[in-house]
């Protein structure tokens, strides 16, 4: 078995998106009747949601198919909303015509020594910060390579183009270049297509100098030309009681992106679209891609459903307490545990813990069947999961199948119970459990107690034992 030695985070480039993609999505339709539309947002090559259908790519059922990405080819490039501020910072550091970094073309020994120092910085983030700081030096001229000698080659000395005085962030997704002189001020909107060409001219050597990487994160990848389409498993449809299909928020956003992208491509191909019409469509695509990725970007209108509900973007599914990272990957939610409020009880023994009936009927103890307890376990099986003391599951030793007693024939299961079968029974008096209250600051924050089943909804703990838990708040089992 292969061993994972390292993990490399990177920006998805156009080529990698196309390599991972199994289909180009071109149609806004999802289903035709009960069949997914080919080249649509639920193309069967991206995976399946139905139990009776196999994935067209990996031939697996939906239980085992992880899903496969598709892609949308954008008619015109747009800004990646997660890198917009970095795009503007980078533009301030390089020539808009020849794409050379200003600091690298200085004839001053001080600047050249500083460039050599930056190249020795191994941490890419620190190298980027040092590069931006150097290029923000007020001694940098406003004309590309202005102080270089005539003997230097054109590549080394710069193109002599007059640089913008500043790059303005007019809106969350719009960059304005401003040339300011004593006589006049000229403003020009920098389109994603123009900025993409500027970034594509940056040499590999300069890419490394800036803290980027020619393999993992090239500057041109901060401009979207291809949009990855997540598989249906990420955005499953919901079938309502009346049989109607309700699509996920991400599917709605992808449908909007496709609709306007197809309109833009049609106008470009026909040559009938005016410049204003093309700009409006590009701005719409930019907006929908931005709110598809993050619906909380300051300055952008929040994307909503018709009923006014805020659409849940990709970032919303990852960030915050309920997101995938904190809520699932880092979340310590486990089975066979319960949480409630603590109540002091002076009438139970020091080693006992009062557990509510409701919790005792939910948390189970796996008891192995043998000649001494088989009669007792049969009685618990007959009681089932809704009567205490009872049992919730039976795991058969022969084939490993787990039977849920709520829906099974309990008489038949009890009669066929064998030695070695495992019965998951309810908690009962004198079982032992671990009890914990966070924050777990010392070893007495988690201790073992003997169960005493009691009525009501709170844990009962002897008053003298609460000190170890610092138990003045909620406490968990």
UniProtKB/TrEMBL annotation:
InterPro entries xref list: DNA-dir_RpoC_beta_prime, RNA_pol_asu, RNA_pol_N, RNA_pol_Rpb1_1, RNA_pol_Rpb1_clamp_domain
Cellular component GO terms held in the UniProt record: DNA-directed RNA polymerase complex
EC number, as in UniProt: 2.7.7.6
One GO BP: DNA-templated transcription
Catalytic class of the enzyme: transferase
Pfam family, one: RNA_pol_Rpb1_1
Alphabetized UniProt keyword annotations: DNA-directed RNA polymerase, Nucleotidyltransferase, Transcription, Transferase
Keyword set includes Transferase: yes
Stretches assigned to the RNA polymerase N-terminal domain: 220-476
GO molecular function: DNA binding; DNA-directed RNA polymerase activity
Entry protein name: DNA-directed RNA polymerase
Lineage start: unclassified sequences, metagenomes, organismal metagenomes
